[in-house]
Amino acid sequence: MSLARGRKVGLATWLVVSYGGLSLVLAIAMALVIDHGASRYVKTDVAKEVAALAAEMREQLDRGIFERLRDIQIVASNDSMRDPNVSVDTKRAALAKLQAANSDYAIITLVNAEGKILATSNEMLEGLDVSTREYFIDGRTAPFVGDVHDAIALAKLLPNQNGEVPRLVDVAAPITQPDGSFGGVVVAHMYWRWADRLKRSVLRSHGESLKTEVLIVSKDGIVLLGPPLLQGHRLKLESIRQADAGKTGSVMERWPDGNTYLT
Question: What gap in Å lies between CA 72 and CA 87, rounded to an integer?
Fold first, then answer.
C-alpha cells in the first residue's frame, strides 16, 4: 500500500476472473483500495475502467481456448487419425507438426479407444494407460477443456523454470472412425504460462492509469494465476460467490490481506 498526498489510496488492483470448462464462468475483478472519503464518482470511474479490463481478459481467454480447441478438433477429424489402418508413425508426425507450430503446447497425445496413449508429438509417455483421466472420460463424447493442474506424469520430462512443476491445461476432442465408431481421443496439454503472457498483454493495452494485478480463480475459489503469496490458495469472497451465481457488478469487501477493496 502506498500513500498519496496524505490519503490512503492503495495502488494495487486485483482482477478476479473465474476459469472453468470451455467458457469462463465469471470475470469480475476490479479492485482499488479507496478511503471512505473518496467520492462515489471516483469509485464508479474505477469500477468502469477495470470492468473493461476484466471483460477484455475474459474475451481473450475464451478466444485462446477456442482456438486451441479448434486445433485439436481439426486434428481429430483428420483422415490420418480417423483411419485405424494408418501407421502410428504417420499419426505421430501429424501431432508433431501441430506442436511445432505452437510453443504453448507441452505435448499432444493420441489416446486409443481403450485409454492407452498410442502416439505423442514427442514420443514421450507412449503406452501409458490414461483411461481414468478426466480428459479421456469426458473427451470420449464431446470436446473437453479441463482446469489448470500440475503436470503429474510429465513433471520430470518437461523443461521447467525456477525448479517449479509445469502447470497445464488439457484440451481434448474425440475421434470418430469412418464406420462411426469411437476411435480414441486427441489431447493437447497446454502450458498455463500462456495465460500469464496473455494477462501481461491485456494489462499493457490498458496503460498505466491503474497499477493492476490479475488473478484468475477457479470456480471453487482456488487462485490459478496471481501473486505468489495467493497462488494455489482458496479465496472465500462474496464477490466470487456472487459471480459464481451469475451476477456481475462490484462490492466493497475485505480481502485476506486485511484491506478493503472495491471488487
Answer: 19
